[in-house]
Amino acid sequence: MGTMLSAFSYLPVTTSPPQINLHLAHQLRQDQSSGNCELSALTATRSCRGDMTSSPSDDSVTRLMGFFRTLGILKSPPSFADRQDFFSDVIRSLLSVDLVKPGHIICTLTVNPTVVNPYNTLHGGVVASVAEAMTLACAKTVAGDKEFFLGEISTSYLSAARIDDKVEVEASILRQGRRVIVTQVHFRIKKTQKLLYTSRTTVYIMPVASL
Question: One GO MF term, please (predicted)?
Answer without folding.
Answer: fatty acyl-CoA hydrolase activity
